[in-house]
Every structure is written in C-alpha cells, then in structure tokens.
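Comment thread on ticket #2218

A.B. wrote:
> Attaching the input chain for the structure job we discussed in standup.
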Amino acid sequence: MIGKILAERYELIEKVAEGGMARVYRGRDLLLKRTVAVKVLKDQMTGDAGFIRRFEREAQSAAALSHPHIVNIYDVGEKEGTYFMVMEYVDGKNLKEYIREKGRLSAHEAIRIARQIAEALAEAHKAGVVHRDIKPQNILFSREGKVKVTDFGIAIAGDGVTVTAGDQIIGSVQYISPEQARGDVAGKQSDLYSLGIVLYEMVTGKVPFDGESPVAVAMKHIQEQIVPPRRLVEDLPNALDQIILKSVQKDSAERYMTAEEFLEDLFYAEEKGEPRINPSRSSNIVGDEEDDDHILRPVRTIEDEPKRVVIPHRARKIILRLFLFLLIPAALVGTGIFFLSSYVFVPDIEVPDVTDMSQSEASAALREEGLMPNSDISYIYHDEIAVGNVVRTDPPAGRIVKQDRAIDLFVSKGPEFIVTPDLIGRTEREAQVLLQGLDLNMIIERDFNEDVPEGEIYRQQPGESFKISPGDTVVVYVSQGRGPFLLADLVGYSEQVALEYLEENELRPVLRKRFTIGSAGHVIEQAPEPGTEVRPGQSIEIWVGE
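C.D. wrote:
> Ran it. Output below, let me know if you need it in another format.
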C-alpha cells in the first residue's frame, strides 16, 4: 500500500499503526498540501456489507464532531474495494506508550488528562455519538501536549485485542464495560466505564483485569471484583479513588449518568482534594462490605436504671478542676475550627454570563461575584462578537464553582479570514474539494466561452487572494466551450478551404461528391444553408463537384 494514491488525492507514505481490522498510514493530501492520517480497512472486513454500511454511517456522524480534544475526520471513501478514512494527523505518542514510559502518573496529571477525555466525550455524546472503544491507544498527544481522542464512533482499530459479539464490535477487552462484554448495546455510560478503567491504569500503571484470553478478561469485567486503586497506591487521594470506583460500577445505574457529571467531580477533586461523591458500596469493590456487628445496642430494663450516687465535696472540686482543664483546650479548638472553616468551607458561586462584554467589564463582573479573572487571556476568532469582547469563559457561565476560583476568559479576535485560492483553469470537482477543505461554499455558473475548454473555470468571484470568512460563498464560472454561431457560406470555396473552416470551428464535415461541369474540386452545395445557427460538434454536409 505504500506509495498508493487513494481517490487520486491521498498518497500513503508510511504505516504508523495496525490493529485487528485496519491499518493506519501517514499520508499526504496532494490537493491541500498537508499531512494526514489515512485509516484503511483490511480486506477481510470489506466482505461484510452490514459492517461497511455501519462503518460509513458512523464515520460520517463522527466527521460532524468538532472539538479541540477530538481528532478531526476529513473524508471517508472507497476506491476499487478499498475503504478508507482520512483524519487529522497527530504527530505524537499515545497514552499507552506514555504510561509505559512513566510506570504510572501522578494524580494531578491523571486528572488533567482525564478531564480532556471527558470533555471530548461530553461533546460526542451531545451529538449522539458513542465511542465504544475508549482505551489508552486511542488517546493521542499533540506536540504541544494537548490530548486528542481518536476513533470516535468507529471502535475498530488499535493495538489491543478486540472482541466481537456476532458481527458487533464491542471494544478492546481490557477496557470494555460489562454490558459490552455481555454483547449488549453500548451506551454513553459504557464510554464512562472505559474512561474509569483508563484512569485506573494511569494512576496504578496496570489494568484492573487481565487474563490468558480475551474471553477470560471479558468475564472478569462481568463477574469479578475490582481492587480499589488506593490499595495499590497508598498516596492516591481519596477523592480520585472514589471517582474511579464510581465510574467502574458493574451496574450502569450506579455509575456517572453523563460525562459532564464525571467532569464536575474531576474539577472538584482537583480543587478541593476531597470527594464530592459518597463512597460506592457495591459488589464491584473488593473488601467493601459494611459490618455493623461491632455496634452494640443494649436493651434497657428497670434493673439497669442507674442508682443515685452522692459525690463528696473534695471529689466535686477535683471534677471541677478537670472540667476547666478540658474546657480551655476545647474552646481553643472550637475557635480554631471557626476560623479554619472560613478557609475550608468556601461559598459556592455561579459563574456569571459575561458574553459580549469588553474584557475590562467582564473582569469587573467576575470580581463583583467573588471570582478571579485569569490574567492569561486566550484570543480566538468569532464571526459575530466584536474584537476585544468576551466570547466565553472556562468554566462556562452557569457552572457552580468555589469563591475566588480563577476564570479563564476567551476574547474575540473578530472573524477568521480565509484567503481565496486561485481557481482559474481548475475543473469543477477540483474547485469543490479545495473550497470544502477551506470551509467555503461554492455556487456554479455555466456559460459559453470559446477561449476556454469545456468544463474548466474561467472566472471566480471573489477573485484570488480575497479575504473572506469561513462559510462564505465563492461563485465560479465554468466554460461550456464555444457557443452557437452562424454557419458561413462555403459554396464556391475549394474542398480544402471548406474542410479547414469546418475543422477550425469544431464542426464535423460530411463530404459528398457530385458530377458537375466547371466546378470540379469546389463546394457546389451545403446543408444546413449559410446563415443557419450551428453548435460545435454538429455535422455539416458539403457537396463537392467532380
């Protein structure tokens, strides 16, 4: 496959990964001159018509996703029985390789990575796309260290072993949810279970279940208890331990309901260092059984009523001194708790909506609510919000955070401009692909143009190097070749001159001979008659004397 060009556009340069069902190549988009990743299904997968339909449908759904932590899908196609998908090329290692290098990750780093994955899942789930194969091999790092989740909605490729139920792909066994292992339909909470397993591996350096065969591992997800990660890593924060345990419950009703809920707990654990959730009590957790037998609840009877005791005067003085001795430290402790609570028990505040405010106005509004605007401002493009005004905040408006929380501001740089390419001389198909890649629309106007071959673009509006915004429209004028014209009078001309005229005007001569006196070798009659409107390619009969 190396060196092969798919769809006359995507050149395969080198293989970078291979899974059970597909190979991934680093490729080159010859039209847009950029590096891409091209995933090619293996031949054995292309014989299943149902699988191919599902592959195309889900790939197109995933292609609609646009998020900073999701690998973009540019194109999906088929060429001579080869099914392929063209994606954003992420030039970095995957999470599995990173964990192997470091052994295990710190709680802070694991939360940072998990937050980015959860944000990607939240965006996908909102669009109705379920990943079904969240695993470290599908978590990539860009050169800048940003997390990129790949294979959304596909769940077909990667380094791990993949299990199927009938013809249904259900994911890599070390990370699949119990419902996937049983062959049931995977839902949004299946992705959150897999994220919990990935988070478990990040902080412990190992997966919770392993075995001699994929089936054995799948059965463990269904039946066996999971060892709490805090038993393997003593310094693991309790907050993170509880998040992981909740996310990997065997009963989906006991897990997180949404990726947003998962994300909220990750934020809380990172900020407060303590769990916001109640510790899970489930058969999914090893040694988590509750035992209340040590609590004694004696039954009181008349015989048990205490008898009146008279305390001597000297004893009362000793008790009073003891009471004062204990009271003073207790008062000091109480005072300390009172002052400490003002730092520990920080009020909850809803992030205000500062959209379309100027940067200074937004900062003042945040401070008024008891929040701190981050001095490090992010500038982004926006088609509608004026330059210098706030587009959004992170955390977003409406989210509940703690007082004095730092709030990131994203300020508008105005519309993003695209420089129009030179389309003159290109075909209609070439222009369409080029403009789609630039997020521009195209309107086609067709007209006759005797100077430009049929099918080529001879004019565009706006012209080359014009600055426009994403989503704008470029009008291209496509030549239909030479238009209709009036046929000349060929009678009296020599046969050679008449044929040259017809050839130059792209007319097809039909030559006929007729005996005549005095006009040998010259045109004596023609059809259609002179002055008739004709088109290129039309047949013209001429009679030549002999």
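A.B. wrote:
> Thanks. Noting for the ticket: The longest strand covers residues 10-18.
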